[in-house]
Amino acid sequence: MLRQIHSLAGLISALLVMLIGLTGAVLSINPALERLAISVPAGVSVAELAGRVVRHYPGAEQIQRTASGTIIVYYSAGDVSGVDRVDPSSGMAIAPYAPPAYARWFKELHRSLFLDTPGSAAVGITALLMLLVSSSGLFLLLKRVGGWRQLARPLHGNRSQRWHAAVARFAVAGLLLSAVTGSYMSAATFSFISDGSQDEPDIPATTSGGTPLPAARLPALLATSLADLRELSFPLAGDSSAVYTLRIRQGDAYVDQSSGALLAFRAHSNVRESFELIYQLHTGEGLWWLGLILGLSALGAPWLAVTGIAVWWQRQRAKPRIANNSAPASADCVILVGSENNSTWGFARALHDALRQAGQRVHTAPMNQFSSRHNAARQLFILTATYGDGDAPACATHFLTNVAGIAPNQAASYAVLGFGDRQFPTFCQFAQEVDAAMAARGWRRSLELALIDRQSPQEFARWGSQVGALLGHELVLDYAPAHPHTHALQLRERIAYGEEEHDPTVVLRFIAAPLPASAGWLKSRLARHRLPRFEAGDLAGVMAPGSSMPRFYSLASGSGDGVLEICVRKQPGGVCSSYLYHLLPGDRIEAFIQPNPQFRPALGKAPVILIGAGTGIGPLAGFIRNNTGQHPMYLYWGGRHPDSDFLYEPELRNYLADRRLTQLHTAFSRVTNGVHVQTRLMEDADNMRRLIADDGQVLVCGSRAMAASVRQAMDQILAPLKLDVAALREKGRYREDVF
Ligand SMILES: Cc1cc2nc3c(=O)[nH]c(=O)nc-3n(C[C@H](O)[C@H](O)[C@H](O)COP(=O)(O)OP(=O)(O)OC[C@H]3O[C@@H](n4cnc5c(N)ncnc54)[C@H](O)[C@@H]3O)c2cc1C
Ligand SMILES: Cc1cc2nc3c(=O)[nH]c(=O)nc-3n(C[C@H](O)[C@H](O)[C@H](O)COP(=O)(O)O)c2cc1C
User: Less Cβ around it within 10 Å: N or C end of the chain?
Assistant: First the structure.
């Protein structure tokens, strides 16, 4: 919802925000330029200034002091009148005063787009929209990075998303201030709120009427500091009843021209003071440094508008499209989809089209949208993937809660089809949870839960024929998902461990494969070193030649490191691991990236406990390498023998030395009295409990057997804290990447 508000308000106001941002940035330089051009004398009274001015301008009518300290004199001499900027230390003219033409031009454009009242109204509405966009943007940003304390953490997402968030991070405070103050000032322009300017003192009915004293000797002016002056208007010459009008920071008053007494002083009301403060905060006048900060933030506005539109457009394009989607209330069949990377949508679309061809009215929607509106349909199909450690994909995270609140339709039935990958230990776990939750809530199951491994078209077609039998007509589901987009990589470096053993390990570092010579000089120059974007903890999918089934490898580097690094154990008889193990520098492979954003260390002060064995060290080493902020990180890792497979040993020693790694605990199993990593955890139980009590987060990577033993050990360690792995997992503080 918040995202929709942010996008809609941003899209509506984008053009005007760009214009107002740019003009605001230009205007913001003025206070600093003015401040540079003047020297402000200290300890001078208004009387002294008036005396100096009158010496050079006998016909002075008014002295003004701008917020930046510039002194301006309005005068007449005979028939001629003029305005000069004067030197406050001497009262002498510096130059005729005229605000720079460009500043007037930009001010007009900024305030009213040269369109008088309608223009001012448009600017006011834009300020309000900007307020909405910046405040919703701030909330989205905090949600994205995980709170105030994480505001500086590295950003995820594609290029536009990262740029949008990075500029927002720097500009949002300034933009919010400009938007709040701009909205307030617009409201005052249209008299929706008072600016307090009506609070002038009443003109005194009587004055002393004596012989006027020179301005330099008037007590009220002697008692007023030049620093407080806004404006001093001189009385009309020869009129003994006339008075000086004195406007100062604290209020407005009249001054008797012969006694020099302060008459009818009226202090500024709170309303007026607030308006002046807000005016100052908006323009930076008198606060040149704030003006520059606001100007820099305003420069971010066009950039935010452009990247924001790009992000919105990408999201629109990535949205799964379903043609001929019936309304939920009139549909015979409802298809609910849980998908992270969209491939399940392709299957859902195929089912949608086939059901329509069979004469059904079908409504297809993301699982999170499930509500009582979908209750009218006779048949509910739920197609969902599983992610992370058996979790829901992003568009299905609220589904189980929604189900709990919806009364089942006794005339309807449901069928769940799970999409997953048997390489993951929790194969289709979320689909299983969904199926069980529907049954527990009292929904009637029409088909047994079916699970599809690696998007198999054959398994999908088989399920289709069961659906056909259920509905009483033939249903052909002939759908094969497109292959993921792969990238050509070239092996640059290969570090082998335990070569004498029958299942050795190798660390492989790839770079983007150079284009063939036929691609031309320019193209190959531009394409050089262009790795796809990824982060340590994501997965590389590799298809060995002759095999259509990709294998996943956890990434030990981010694309920012300039290499794609994986750590592979050669499995006896294993197709892909053997293929990768035998690669030599210069060899090329094809790989695709599968993001795995759940498996990341939470940055901040809380300790990160990294636990792994064997090749599971890959992503953990990547996290430590990136820990340049020296946040507390503890590594517990198990290998076979320190002489043969101490993976990343030199790097880990360096990380300990430069404090990217706080502690290293190793466990070797093939030495005398060998132990596994879970033993080290048990030995260090007190430390572990302290780290967990300090909000520590646990990331486990490696084999399923190791992960199971670690879970058991952790449950025992956590018991005195009345905690267990399940409780930590629920809070996202225990994550596994196991295989
Ligand atoms: C999320 C995730 C992350 C992963 N990260 C890593 C990682 O960082 N490093 C890593 O090394 N692996 C990782 N894996 C495991 C990796 O994806 C592969 O499963 C592994 O490399 C084995 O693939 P393979 O093609 O060599 O074996 P396959 O050909 O798929 O065979 C699987 C197993 O069956 C056995 N087998 C196969 N054929 C025969 C045969 N003819 N005779 C006897 N036995 C046979 C082998 O023992 C082998 O272990 C990860 C897996 C997942 C799901
Ligand atoms: C990072 C990641 C984690 C995954 N975790 C699981 C899992 O725990 N269990 C499972 O069965 N499948 C898992 N899968 C496989 C996906 O569920 C499967 O590929 C699915 O078809 C993807 O559908 P989608 O493209 O619609 O999101 C995972 C895939 C990725 C990339």
Answer: N
